[in-house]
Amino acid sequence: MASLRVLVGCKRVIDYAVKIRVRPDALGVVTDGVKHSMNPFDENAIEEAVRMKQKKLVKEIVVASCGPTQSQETIRTALAMGADRGIHVEVPKGTEESLQPLAVAKIFAKLVEKEKPDVVILGKQAIDDDSNQTTQLLAGILNWPQGTMASVVEHSDGKLKITREVDGGLEDISVNLPAVISADLRLNEPRYATLPNIMKAKKKKIEKMSPEDLGVDVSPRIKVLKVVDPPVREAGDKVPDVATLMSKLKEKGHI
Amino acid sequence: GINAEYGVLADTVAPHGYTVPLDLGSRGSCQIGGNLATHAGGLRVLRYGQLRASVLGMRVVLPDGGVLDSMSHMRKDNTGYDLKQLFIGSEGTLGVITDVSLLLPQQPSSVNVAMFGCSSFEKVIQTYRLARQTMGEVVSACEFLDETCMRAVNDNLSLPSPFPDRHPFYFLVETSGSNQDHDMEKLEGYVARVFEEGGADDGVLATSKDQAAKLMALRENIAPALKQLGYNYKYDVSLPIKHMYSLVEKVVERAGESVVAVGYGHLGDNNLHLNVVTPSYSTELLALIEPYVYEEVARLRGSISAEHGLGLKKANYLRYSKDEGVISHMRMIKRLFDPNGILNPYKLLPWK
Q1: ipTM confidence
Q2: CA dist A230 to A21, A26, A31, A209, B12, Å?
Q3: CB distance A192–B211 less than 8 Å?
Q4: In what order do the strands lie in the sheet with A169-176?
Q5: Eight-class DSSP state of B127
Q6: How far is B80 from chain A (nearest CA, A)?
Q7: pTM score, two decimals?
Q8: Beta strand A179-183 with A119-123: parallel, antiparallel or unpaired?
Q9: Of B184, B205, B211, the CB nearest to A195
Q10: What's the average model confidence in pLDDT over A81-88?
Q11: CA B216/CA B126 separation, integer angstroms
């Protein structure tokens, strides 16, 4: 069959295992000299696209990332995992923090116009801002159906059957193509980038452009006022009996 | 002084930008005093040298109750006999280490892990040598394992192989540096040559800390995985690199098909861990393996205990690695510090 074309999004974020520290200006976290990697949910997104290609459902996988120059490393990782070519929408270094979901969704909408994919797969959320908005905003702008928090994706006859992880459990939906999907962690186990593929990926094309080239205004709509560490957990009180518990609760104004 | 467990030590120094120059599988439970007394080895000897090289000062309580105070924070102190070095690796037979001053290296900001699948041990050596040549200054660990070890970890501990195919040998290399871009460039140059020169049939590079930890876990969990297969006869030896795996093959020849013999270890330190696994312990099998293994190691001028020490089990085999003259001087030192023999009798020095 091999007729579908997929556009996958990925984002370069601080590595999930790094202990983050709040910046002295309290407007963000320290990123200089800190290990960055592909957003874990985006790994699931790319892996899903590659599996669909291995099943001969997909003809071409285009991977796109919005960010500073170093986002190219993340695109290369995606290419090494099996994507065919890349698009880097570059923003000046230091401005990537103000690139918010609405701007990214608008950029992807323009890329969809350009590339005409049948499926767009994004990671459910980025682990730095935890927004979980880009997929939904993109679907809204395109007026396409969406399957978010996907843990299973199956294809049949121009439709996608998706199992979503929701608060109450699992929800099965069916969406017509073209559609936007967001990948959840249990969707698949992302493969390692094999070294022969990393070498091959160097020869794959990455097209560079700016948000201006796409006619998108990326100025932020939300302003970060302050970033602080969560409060240190305080020790609790042990009480000897129910009567003391009641009086303590009253004392603290809980009852 | 405070006995800090390794894990705690690492956490205490990390916020200051330092790391502990020792890293080993038991990091969550071992204690620094014990690490010094046994002169523990581990994964980072290749990069930071043996633990004794990082000791600046020490305080030891002697068997007569006296205290040998060699505490210092100087990096260079060439004044007389360096007595503290005697206690490192003395396995608690000369004194009890109570305080130590350790030189800490900088915490590297850029750590990369790659693993290769190789078709023979010669190819493993080839791939390893290329790593030393092309990126020696950032290499921080070089480990190898054979397919039986990989299988054991995959099947018994549910840690999957990163490769789609099986390979007779696997080589793991870790780099630690201060500049991710530089290290990546070195790594890519190295990898290109590995494949050009046919040193490996496949390879993977960890692209996140999580993947790096998973690759290291494959090597670090071999011992627990093998334990699940039966009784393990364990050997830890130093050998010239080209002979490292042939010892495993020879043991298989001798012991027969009913046993499983595996090799893995710190390739960069020429340190082989040889495990012979059987459903249950047998004195007949033991007689086939020992003293054969020690004789072979002695013949090749290796060490019968590269990093694990002698303890009780290997004390009587010390002669395979040290001559009688050296052993008699060791006994003199033991008598000097512990004339009543109260500290750890039957350990380290031969008693048979």
Answers
A1: 0.80
A2: 11, 13, 19, 38, 21
A3: yes
A4: A169-176, A159-166, A146-156, A179-183, A119-123, A4-9, A58-67, A85-90, A206-209
A5: H
A6: 43
A7: 0.87
A8: parallel
A9: B205
A10: 97
A11: 21
